[in-house]
Amino acid sequence: MTAQAAIPDKVRSAERYATTLALIVTLGPLFYGFEGMVLNGAISAVGTEFQLGSFAKGVAGAAGIIGGLIGSVVAGRLSDHIGRKTVLMCAGPLLLFEAIFGAFSPWLGGYFFLLFCRVVGGMGFGAATTVAPGYVAEISPARIRGRLISFRQLAIILGLLFAAIVNLVVTNIAGSSTAEMAFGLKAWQFMFLFLLIPAVFYIVLTALIPESPRYLVAKGRNDEAAKVLAKVTGRDDVPAQVAAIHASLGEEGTERMSMFAVLKSQWKGLVFVGMALAAFQQLTGTNGIFFYSNTLFESVGIPESAAFQQTLILSVFKIIGVTTGILLVDKVGRKRMLIYGGTLIFISLAVVATVFTIAPKGPNGPDISGSPILGFAAVAALCCFLLGFTSSWGPIFSVMMGEMFPNQIRGSAMSLASGADFFVNLVVVLMFPYLVAWSPAFTYWMYCFFGVMAVIFAKKFLHETSGKSLEDMG
Fold first, then answer.
1. Alpha carbons within 13 A on the beta-carbon side of 438
2. For an engineered disulfide with 45, which of 177, 198, 228, 393 has Cβ 3.0 to 4.6 Å away?
3. CA distance 96 to 68
4. What is the mean pLDDT of the chain?
């Protein structure tokens, strides 16, 4: 009899229930991906609507990340006070606000009101993407915890893909993103209104999930915690689990550990490791390598006008990568996945950097249009980068953020790590266009260097968390 067949039926049932809960809370990250791609399709129309220059359009693009930074810093700590479920539920109306009022911003206050809507929506998905990994970690059986937290990355990718389909359909029906469709609304406004779909599902379904058992124990609600643990683990030793959670909280309890207190505590080194992990995830170039994707695809015969074909190709590789990560993270281990995936990342970046280094110079920078070999090498490297990132540093950062911190500090530590993630993301998004305009080759060699450093960092400073109880962390 195999180990898989030996799992009791009630444990299997509990794992299915935990999986359902994980899928529900990942609707927040799905909105994050959906919102980002909606804006990507609407940004030219937004620029035309409000007569924006390139800098103002850049601010519109960065506003969501700024909101995400605010939401992420506040959410983890707030979840220690009012509960993981409550914070997740509070994120829903913020997502709904952007979906509705962002679409009607031309009539309600113009460009600056749109920025406000994006910041509010960003606060929503910042809170949701910060608290979701911790919530999933706290309701997941250790055997499948990694794959359930990894759903966050898959949700972001699916959000991007769904929004690309919506943008394509709306634009084809209207003729362009600036064309008027119905009820006096233009195509780009309908793109925003489609954000209502994930927002409404998120609001309805998060109201149905239970509170985290670790939070309930921290608040002295042991009987409620025991009921939730019985449903999500299927184990017979629930009283012992409750006792272990209570013991792990220490005398001070969770709610006294503010972010400043955490940074002065015995776990400050661990928290800095989490923040560095977040920084390296962004510094490996995930938001930068796509800047030249149109150019790379054009060099192998796929023009910029075939944007959906490009999105579909990239999405296929992303889905393959994240599915591989989900299947392997609990078997291979977090640390080894980061090392293996990180190695593929920096090798891929080195190939792209080499292409831009040796490519002939054109009026707008490196020109690879006349060299199919260089074009195919760069596109292949782009696809390998996607496989490496989405199978390792993309999802496993979320896994580590959700489970690497002790119960006493998890909320505050998640805020600090997720805040670092959004902050570095903002810096990369703002700086990359200037760097790549100066020297594409240097920019990608710089990303390659950070990729190498990320692998060294993972090997030297990270400890394996696979299969361990959350009460054993720290």
1. 9
2. 177
3. 15
4. 83
* Two structure tokens written together for 380: 């292949």
- The boundaries of the domain holding residue 376 are 257-474
Residues 261 and 196 in one domain: no
Same domain, 199 and 261: no
Tens-digit pLDDT profile for residues 244-286: 888 877 655 544 567 777 788 788 888 899 899 999 988 887 7
Q: 416: which 2 tokens?
A: 């600090």
Q: Say whether both 15 and 124 belong to one domain.
A: yes
Closest C-alpha among 278, 250, 283 to residue 413: 278
The dihedral region occupied by 253, where left means phi > 0, alpha psi between -120 and 50, and beta the remainder, is left
Q: Is residue 126 part of a domain?
A: yes
Q: Where are the strands (E) in 254-407, listed by range?
A: 361-362, 365-366
- Distance from C-alpha of 30 to C-alpha of 202, rounded to nearest angstrom: 10
pLDDT confidence tier of residue 307, bands split at 50, 70 and 90: low
pLDDT of 368 > 50? The answer is yes
Domain boundary among 209, 240, 268: 209
Could you tell me what percent of the chain has a pLDDT over 90?
A: 18
The CATH number of the domain where 415 resides is what?
1.20.1250.20
Residues 190 and 265 in one domain: no
